[in-house]
């Protein structure tokens, strides 16, 4: 049994194994791994993709599913996260999937339950299952996990507020990819210099650098406390991905939800070069695999 708080401790082979298990789920070679288990989905911040795909994953794997949101739970009466987690533990949850607006919430929760905690996004912290499904979708598009090595990916946009960036950049690195950042200084974390990644001024420069994948991040206005960018128009001009950027064959990714016309133009979302639908579709298989590993059911699969 293990929690998924980040991918920090995962090695390259761990990533390969979980993607292989996800593929087995996608192809219907495993199922029913969570029969008799109870999965609690506690989403204290808005979600469509993550919440729905975790629910589908848990149900299709045979689990009983409990869904909890802030409204309608005792959180809105003032109960703390820790007391909520302790309560769910007492009620027999076998896994806790947690989305929360505060970075570190999943790690805190994991210290107060015997069940594995799966971080479904914690503020500006981490989003490990997003990174796993991104790896899955990209590896399927390029012909397999080993085909990712040495490919160049530009991570574009609001790195500062992005939990996705903090998970997907190490995941791409572990897969052997080369990474550059394309962002205004105002949307880079203060420690980004220590990451040792080239910082480029525009998507055009990223393509000149040799980016084969443009990974656009959502502009997270809800996490901005002041004016961080000159204007949305200027952001779109330098950091937005549009049709002309696809001429050289680059693939486009985005974790969603997309601000169309800002991070990616509407035609690009629908273009064959866009892996956005593939990323969403990968969510169920990848999260099925994560739930199986987290609850220890993967050992039964292997046996
Ligand atoms: N990518 C992502 O986490 O989307 P949701 O907020 O819809 O879950």
TrEMBL record:
Keyword presence, Transferase: yes
EC identifiers of the protein: 2.1.3.2
Catalyzed reaction equations: carbamoyl phosphate + L-aspartate = N-carbamoyl-L-aspartate + phosphate + H(+)
Any GO molecular function: amino acid binding
Highest taxon, organism lineage: Bacteria
Residues given in the record as carbamoyl phosphate binding sites: 49-50, 99, 127, 130, 256-257
Domain (Aspartate/ornithine carbamoyltransferase Asp/Orn-binding) ranges: 151-292
Binding of L-aspartate, residues: 77, 163, 218
InterPro entries: Asp/Orn_carbamoyltranf_P-bd, Asp/Orn_carbamoylTrfase, Asp/Orn_carbamoylTrfase_sf, Asp_carbamoyltransf, Asp_carbamoyltransf_Asp/Orn-bd
One Gene Ontology cellular component annotation held by this UniProt entry: cytosol
Domain Aspartate/ornithine carbamoyltransferase carbamoyl-P binding: 2-140
Family of this protein: Belongs to the aspartate/ornithine carbamoyltransferase superfamily. ATCase family.
Protein name: Aspartate carbamoyltransferase
